[in-house]
Amino acid sequence: MQSGDARAVNLHEGDWQDETMNADAVFDIHPAILRFERTIRYLTDTEITGFFSEEGATILILHAVDTGSRYFSVIPKEMEERIRGSILTHNHPSGCSFTKRDLKEASFFSLKEIRVVGRTGLYSMMPGAGGWPVPQVIADCFSAIEKDPDFQAEIVCLCPRPERFTDAGGQGSCIERIRSDRLCERVAAALNLTYRRYIWKDANDSVLQA
Question: 20: burial class by Cβ within 10 Å (0-12, 13-18, 19+)?
Fold first, then answer.
């Protein structure tokens, strides 16, 4: 979720289909949010962001466009106060976990929760007891972990072990998704945030075999 052009998206609640989920209904979230996530999780050429109240009411939906290097969307100025403290969920066509900008914006808008879905699973980040750190603290922590030799070594160790993956798109995409997941896991541990993941029961590719 980044600056750029936004377009309205015609997603109607009647089009959102229920599915069987567990993990306490994917972290005890309102069913309307789960249904929305089901409609966007398989998208491969666009990113859609939804802001919801804890009660499942839709606050704002944005449609980002692919510029060739990143997906861009913009939050209208007049909506900034309305989305504070809300639940943000969106899809990553890459299937990766949160970006640095995702987490900075979660902090900036004091979100109750930020979520991201892809074709293999869902990731969630929530503030800890002390709330979100300021955006710059999150950015600095994220960058420091990315550059940490121990973290880089951990990811390199995954590369020669293709038997751990099943992925129609190739081992490289698996590695990138797991790198993203491990990075967010470390950020959460360092900043006392709550990070969780859930693998879809019908996911048939890109799954890390434990």
Answer: exposed
Tell me how far apart the alpha carbons of residues 90 and 61 are, in angstroms, rounded to a whole number: 9
Bridge partners for 91 per DSSP: 117
Backbone φ and ψ for 119, nearest 5 degrees, come out as -70, -15
Three-class DSSP category at 64: strand
- pLDDT digits (tens), the chain, 210 positions: 543 333 333 333 333 333 445 555 566 889 999 999 999 999 988 899 999 999 999 999 999 866 666 767 889 999 999 999 999 999 999 899 999 999 999 999 999 999 999 988 999 999 999 999 999 999 999 999 999 999 999 888 876 555 444 444 555 578 888 899 999 999 999 999 999 998 876 654 434 332
Q: Distance (Å, rounded) from C-alpha 204 to C-alpha 187?
A: 28
Alpha carbons 98 and 59: distance in angstroms, whole number: 21
- CA 118 – CA 132 distance, rounded (Å): 24
pTM of the model: 0.80
